[in-house]
Protein backbone atom coordinates (compact mmCIF):
# COMPACT_ATOMS: atom_id res chain seq x y z
CA UNK A 1 0.00 0.00 0.00
CA UNK A 2 2.82 2.38 0.90
CA UNK A 3 4.51 1.69 -2.45
CA UNK A 4 1.27 2.56 -4.25
CA UNK A 5 1.03 5.85 -2.37
CA UNK A 6 4.66 6.57 -3.19
CA UNK A 7 4.12 5.91 -6.89
CA UNK A 8 1.02 8.12 -6.91
CA UNK A 9 2.92 10.95 -5.21
CA UNK A 10 5.80 10.54 -7.64
CA UNK A 11 3.39 10.72 -10.60
CA UNK A 12 1.78 13.89 -9.22
CA UNK A 13 5.18 15.55 -8.78
CA UNK A 14 6.21 14.51 -12.32
CA UNK A 15 3.01 16.01 -13.72
CA UNK A 16 3.49 19.23 -11.78
CA UNK A 17 7.08 19.48 -12.99
CA UNK A 18 6.06 18.98 -16.61
CA UNK A 19 3.40 21.70 -16.33
CA UNK A 20 5.80 24.11 -14.64
CA UNK A 21 8.49 23.57 -17.26
CA UNK A 22 6.09 24.61 -20.03
CA UNK A 23 6.18 28.26 -18.96
CA UNK A 24 8.76 30.86 -18.07
CA UNK A 25 10.05 30.33 -14.50
CA UNK A 26 8.68 32.67 -11.85
CA UNK A 27 11.17 35.40 -10.90
CA UNK A 28 12.81 35.27 -7.49
CA UNK A 29 13.55 39.01 -7.41
CA UNK A 30 11.83 42.25 -8.49
CA UNK A 31 13.63 42.33 -11.84
CA UNK A 32 16.64 40.95 -13.70
CA UNK A 33 17.72 43.31 -16.48
CA UNK A 34 19.58 41.17 -19.02
CA UNK A 35 23.16 42.08 -19.92
CA UNK A 36 25.48 40.46 -22.45
CA UNK A 37 28.74 41.13 -20.58
CA UNK A 38 29.09 38.93 -17.47
CA UNK A 39 31.88 41.21 -16.23
CA UNK A 40 29.24 43.83 -15.44
CA UNK A 41 26.59 41.43 -14.15
CA UNK A 42 25.34 39.51 -11.16
CA UNK A 43 24.35 35.87 -11.44
CA UNK A 44 20.83 35.66 -10.00
CA UNK A 45 18.22 32.92 -10.41
CA UNK A 46 20.21 31.28 -13.20
CA UNK A 47 20.61 34.48 -15.25
CA UNK A 48 23.17 37.19 -15.67
CA UNK A 49 21.53 40.36 -14.44
CA UNK A 50 22.58 43.96 -14.25
CA UNK A 51 23.49 45.17 -10.77
CA UNK A 52 20.22 46.63 -9.38
CA UNK A 53 22.08 49.79 -8.39
CA UNK A 54 22.93 50.37 -12.07
CA UNK A 55 19.41 49.76 -13.42
CA UNK A 56 17.78 52.73 -15.18
CA UNK A 57 14.23 53.54 -16.28
CA UNK A 58 15.41 53.05 -19.89
CA UNK A 59 15.89 49.34 -19.13
CA UNK A 60 12.08 49.06 -18.96
CA UNK A 61 11.25 51.38 -21.88
CA UNK A 62 10.54 51.07 -25.60
CA UNK A 63 9.25 53.75 -27.96
CA UNK A 64 7.71 53.55 -31.42
CA UNK A 65 4.72 51.20 -31.39
CA UNK A 66 2.53 54.08 -32.58
CA UNK A 67 4.30 54.05 -35.96
CA UNK A 68 2.74 51.97 -38.79
CA UNK A 69 5.06 49.33 -40.25
CA UNK A 70 5.74 48.54 -43.90
CA UNK A 71 3.41 45.78 -45.12
CA UNK A 72 4.61 45.69 -48.75
CA UNK A 73 5.77 42.07 -48.64
CA UNK A 74 4.50 38.68 -49.89
CA UNK A 75 2.24 38.06 -46.87
CA UNK A 76 1.01 41.62 -46.42
CA UNK A 77 1.78 41.95 -42.72
CA UNK A 78 4.52 43.10 -40.37
CA UNK A 79 5.00 41.96 -36.77
CA UNK A 80 6.91 44.27 -34.41
CA UNK A 81 7.90 42.26 -31.33
CA UNK A 82 8.76 43.91 -28.05
CA UNK A 83 10.41 41.05 -26.22
CA UNK A 84 13.41 40.70 -23.91
CA UNK A 85 15.75 41.57 -26.78
CA UNK A 86 14.06 44.97 -27.07
CA UNK A 87 13.37 45.66 -23.37
CA UNK A 88 16.05 44.10 -21.18
CA UNK A 89 13.90 44.66 -18.10
CA UNK A 90 11.48 41.99 -19.34
CA UNK A 91 13.99 39.31 -18.41
CA UNK A 92 12.30 36.74 -16.05
CA UNK A 93 8.97 38.62 -16.13
CA UNK A 94 7.31 36.24 -18.61
CA UNK A 95 5.56 38.65 -20.96
CA UNK A 96 5.96 40.02 -24.51
CA UNK A 97 4.09 42.63 -26.54
CA UNK A 98 3.70 42.87 -30.33
CA UNK A 99 2.17 45.23 -32.88
CA UNK A 100 0.83 43.59 -36.05
CA UNK A 101 0.16 45.70 -39.15
CA UNK A 102 -1.92 44.27 -41.99
CA UNK A 103 -2.24 45.49 -45.56
CA UNK A 104 -5.69 45.05 -47.15
CA UNK A 105 -6.13 41.26 -47.50
CA UNK A 106 -2.80 40.73 -45.74
CA UNK A 107 -2.31 37.89 -43.32
CA UNK A 108 -0.19 36.70 -40.44
CA UNK A 109 0.28 33.16 -41.82
CA UNK A 110 -0.46 30.00 -39.79
CA UNK A 111 2.17 29.76 -37.05
CA UNK A 112 2.71 28.66 -33.46
CA UNK A 113 4.32 30.12 -30.35
CA UNK A 114 5.96 27.14 -28.61
CA UNK A 115 6.48 29.01 -25.34
CA UNK A 116 3.51 31.34 -24.92
CA UNK A 117 -0.24 31.90 -25.03
CA UNK A 118 -1.27 34.95 -27.09
CA UNK A 119 -4.10 37.41 -26.44
CA UNK A 120 -4.87 39.78 -29.32
CA UNK A 121 -6.93 42.99 -29.52
CA UNK A 122 -7.91 44.73 -32.77
CA UNK A 123 -7.25 48.48 -32.88
CA UNK A 124 -8.26 49.17 -36.46
CA UNK A 125 -9.98 47.16 -39.21
CA UNK A 126 -11.53 43.71 -39.30
CA UNK A 127 -9.63 40.45 -38.86
CA UNK A 128 -10.65 36.85 -39.47
CA UNK A 129 -8.71 34.83 -36.88
CA UNK A 130 -8.56 31.24 -35.74
CA UNK A 131 -6.62 28.38 -34.20
CA UNK A 132 -6.53 24.59 -34.64
CA UNK A 133 -6.54 22.17 -31.73
CA UNK A 134 -4.16 19.28 -31.23
CA UNK A 135 -5.43 15.76 -32.06
CA UNK A 136 -8.80 15.10 -30.42
CA UNK A 137 -10.14 11.72 -29.27
CA UNK A 138 -11.87 11.29 -32.63
CA UNK A 139 -8.54 11.87 -34.41
CA UNK A 140 -9.58 15.25 -35.79
CA UNK A 141 -8.14 18.73 -35.37
CA UNK A 142 -10.87 21.21 -34.47
CA UNK A 143 -10.85 24.75 -35.93
CA UNK A 144 -12.04 27.73 -33.86
CA UNK A 145 -12.57 30.95 -35.84
CA UNK A 146 -13.99 34.41 -35.25
CA UNK A 147 -14.34 37.70 -37.14
CA UNK A 148 -12.92 40.49 -34.96
CA UNK A 149 -13.77 44.17 -35.22
CA UNK A 150 -12.22 47.18 -33.51
CA UNK A 151 -11.99 46.56 -29.76
CA UNK A 152 -12.54 42.79 -29.99
CA UNK A 153 -10.21 40.37 -28.20
CA UNK A 154 -9.26 36.76 -28.98
CA UNK A 155 -6.99 34.20 -27.28
CA UNK A 156 -4.67 31.69 -29.00
CA UNK A 157 -3.63 28.91 -26.57
CA UNK A 158 0.05 28.10 -26.19
CA UNK A 159 1.62 25.96 -28.90
CA UNK A 160 -1.45 25.74 -31.18
CA UNK A 161 -1.41 26.70 -34.87
CA UNK A 162 -3.19 30.02 -35.40
CA UNK A 163 -3.53 32.84 -37.93
CA UNK A 164 -4.96 36.31 -38.61
CA UNK A 165 -6.31 37.59 -41.94
CA UNK A 166 -7.40 41.11 -42.88
CA UNK A 167 -10.70 40.75 -44.73
CA UNK A 168 -11.12 44.47 -45.35
CA UNK A 169 -10.27 46.95 -48.09
CA UNK A 170 -8.29 49.09 -45.62
CA UNK A 171 -5.24 48.42 -43.41
CA UNK A 172 -5.75 46.79 -40.03
CA UNK A 173 -3.77 46.99 -36.79
CA UNK A 174 -3.74 44.67 -33.79
CA UNK A 175 -1.75 44.43 -30.58
CA UNK A 176 -0.89 41.11 -28.95
CA UNK A 177 0.53 40.11 -25.58
CA UNK A 178 2.20 36.73 -25.01
CA UNK A 179 2.85 34.86 -21.78
CA UNK A 180 6.61 34.59 -22.27
CA UNK A 181 9.54 36.98 -22.47
CA UNK A 182 10.50 35.13 -25.67
CA UNK A 183 7.53 33.09 -26.91
CA UNK A 184 9.24 32.02 -30.14
CA UNK A 185 7.47 31.68 -33.48
CA UNK A 186 7.31 28.81 -35.97
CA UNK A 187 5.65 29.81 -39.25
CA UNK A 188 4.35 26.49 -40.54
CA UNK A 189 4.98 26.83 -44.30
CA UNK A 190 8.38 28.45 -43.76
CA UNK A 191 9.51 25.73 -41.36
CA UNK A 192 8.24 22.80 -43.43
CA UNK A 193 9.23 23.96 -46.92
CA UNK A 194 11.99 26.46 -46.17
CA UNK A 195 14.11 24.69 -43.56
CA UNK A 196 17.90 24.74 -43.89
CA UNK A 197 18.95 22.13 -44.89
CA UNK A 198 15.67 21.16 -46.57
CA UNK A 199 13.59 18.21 -45.39
CA UNK A 200 13.90 15.21 -47.70
CA UNK A 201 11.19 15.70 -50.41
CA UNK A 202 10.25 12.01 -50.16
CA UNK A 203 9.27 12.58 -46.53
CA UNK A 204 7.09 15.59 -47.35
CA UNK A 205 5.52 13.97 -50.42
CA UNK A 206 4.47 11.04 -48.25
CA UNK A 207 3.28 13.27 -45.42
CA UNK A 208 1.16 15.56 -47.65
CA UNK A 209 0.20 12.75 -50.05
CA UNK A 210 1.13 14.78 -53.13
CA UNK A 211 3.49 14.32 -56.05
CA UNK A 212 7.15 14.88 -55.23
CA UNK A 213 7.36 17.55 -57.96
CA UNK A 214 4.92 19.70 -55.97
CA UNK A 215 7.19 19.47 -52.93
CA UNK A 216 10.24 20.35 -55.03
CA UNK A 217 8.38 23.41 -56.33
CA UNK A 218 7.39 24.53 -52.84
CA UNK A 219 10.91 24.10 -51.48
CA UNK A 220 12.25 26.39 -54.21
CA UNK A 221 9.97 29.27 -53.19
CA UNK A 222 11.11 32.27 -51.16
CA UNK A 223 9.45 31.95 -47.75
CA UNK A 224 9.11 35.42 -46.26
CA UNK A 225 9.44 36.00 -42.51
CA UNK A 226 7.18 38.84 -41.36
CA UNK A 227 8.61 38.93 -37.81
Automatic annotation (TrEMBL):
Lineage: superkingdom: Eukaryota
Please report the stretch or stretches of sequence annotated as the Cupin type-1 domain: 63-216
Report the locations given in the UniProt record.
Secreted, Extracellular space, Apoplast
UniProt lists the family membership as follows: Belongs to the germin family.
Q: Which InterPro entries match?
A: Cupin_1 (IPR006045), Germin (IPR001929), Germin_Mn-BS (IPR019780), RmlC-like_jellyroll (IPR014710), RmlC_Cupin_sf (IPR011051)
Q: What exactly does this protein do?
A: May play a role in plant defense. Probably has no oxalate oxidase activity even if the active site is conserved.
Q: Does the keyword section mention Glycoprotein?
A: yes
What pairs make up the disulfide bonds? 32-49
* Stored Gene3D superfamilies: Jelly Rolls
Cellular component GO terms held in the UniProt record: apoplast
Q: Write out the entry's keywords from A to Z.
A: Apoplast, Disulfide bond, Glycoprotein, Manganese, Metal-binding, Secreted, Signal
Positions with a binding annotation for Mn(2+) = 111, 113, 118, 162
Q: What is this protein called?
A: Germin-like protein
A Pfam family cross-referenced in the UniProt record is Cupin_1
Extract the GO molecular function terms from the UniProt entry.
Answer: manganese ion binding
Q: Which residues form the signal peptide?
A: 1-22
- Provide the binding site for oxalate: 108, 113, 118
Give the species.
Answer: Cannabis sativa (Hemp)
Amino acid sequence: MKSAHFLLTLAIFALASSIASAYDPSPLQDFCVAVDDPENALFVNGKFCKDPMQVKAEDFFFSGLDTPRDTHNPVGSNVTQVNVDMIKGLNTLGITLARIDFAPYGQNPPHTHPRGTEILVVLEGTLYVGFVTSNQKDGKNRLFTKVLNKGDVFVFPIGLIHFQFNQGHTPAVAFAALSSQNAGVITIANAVFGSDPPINPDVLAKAFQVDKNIINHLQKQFWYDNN
